[in-house]
Amino acid sequence: xxxxxxxxxxxxxxxxxxxxxxxxxxxxxxxxxxxxxxxxxxxxxxxxxxxxxxxxxxxxxxxxxxxxxxxxxxxxxxxxxxxxxxxxxxxxxxxxxxxxxxxxxxxxxxxxxxxxxxxxxxxxxxxxxxxxxxxxxxxxxxxx
Amino acid sequence: xxxxxxxxxxxxxxxxxxxxxxxxxxxxxxxxxxxxxxxxxxxxxxxxxxxxxxxxxxxxxxxxxxxxxxxxxxxxxxxxxxxxxxxxxxxxxxxxxxxxxxxxxxxxxxxxxxxxxxxxxxxxxxxxxxxxxxxxxxxxxxxxxxxxxxxxxxxxxxxxxxxxxxxxxxxxxxxxxxxxxxxxxxxxxxxxxxxxxxxxxxxxxxxxxxxxxxxxxxxxxxxxxxxxxxxxxxxxxxxxxxxxxxxxxxxxxxxxxxxxxxxxxxxxxxxxxxxxxxxxxxxxxxxxxxxxxxxxxxxxxxxxxxxxxxxxxxxxxxxxxxxxxxxxxxxxxxxxxxxxxxxxxxxxxxxxxxxxxxxxxxxxxxxxxxxxxxxxxxxxxxxxxxxxxxxxxx
Lengths: 144, 394
Ligand SMILES: [Zn+2]
What we know:
Helices cover 6% and strands 35% of the residues of chain A.
């Protein structure tokens, strides 16, 4: 079942730093962006000052489709925070993005039915506003 | 650094469930246990000139040295290896201090009274603020409920299950085997509490694929060890246990580890981040996994034991589950008796330092569940994060 929001707005919110600001600002526009090195063209996430492959500091932000596949998953039954008491059980997924090779994003799958959650499940991004400043990317099952 | 130092003294406090330590402070428990370990070695506190601990130990060495009346503090180390990854690193850094002449007698210690402070590894609740590298990383974890190690390690183990067919029942064999060891160990918190595979299967889910009995204990207790140079060790009261080899570090892209980061290379993902350390250990010692008589592995979660067994070469990649289910980890008849005092799952959660103490017992010949004629024991600290490991020999 889809809940809105999937996790409560009292969840910890991210720090928006110089390195991460373009990512979070893009989420507010409902766009998923990934850092790409302009020297060797490799993608990286989470955002970092330099390319861990070629050590260039030069980079650009590239919008991606938001489509991916579940790389691994967990289902949280015991609320690890008081804020989550009403949200359990919920999923945590690591999603490998289709069009940013090597990039994985930690998120949630908001609508997996019973028995549907599995590795390699095709998913696509959805956005949830957590505060006026912060919108986060979550994922739903990609259905034909 | 082969045989750079020897462990000549050990001590363990009483172990209780979380909140059970009420007779004294966590800090006093650290001091008592250090004094007992020095006495065990047949040395005096006046001989001690160094300390090493890990995971931002609250009981800081400068105060420990002051209150013990240490005449001269020459080395105080706190490894950067995060959390439970640091127990073996603290021993390694004590050995380094001795090998380089920075100090001559170093105490490694850890005291945790979770009832007096917050529970260790408690979920991170606040908004992420600040400009540390870790803050940026946490911003991509905490808003999604990846707020503690249980979620992080569940993700690694789920991937392992997908790749290799590892089962919940195989995880159960780890839990039940270590519980049987604890049932023989009067000091273990779970000494009087038997466990069956059916108990494991029926336990309430915490974070799938982990149920309650896949997760380590939360306890109060303290351990300490005393290290000196090998030539001095021969004059101590106990049979020396030599630090045959030591390693600490990480593979690429682990950051602070899977409790917050999931960006390591795909081939490293469903591992314990201990394989590179294992290569260093075996190369330094000039031995292989087949020469190891018993193992003390970091068991924060049952499934992570399987990954670390594979990292250390005791079975092939992906075969940790069948290896555990074969009875290999069981004392006395298994191929590799492991966590012979019960480990963090069933003895106590002293952040993996109790694993080093149990290894010393095995090599002295004083373990409750003694592996006959044990000569070499491997000890590994927290997996799935930057970590550390030791080969100890008698
Ligand atoms: Zn590059």
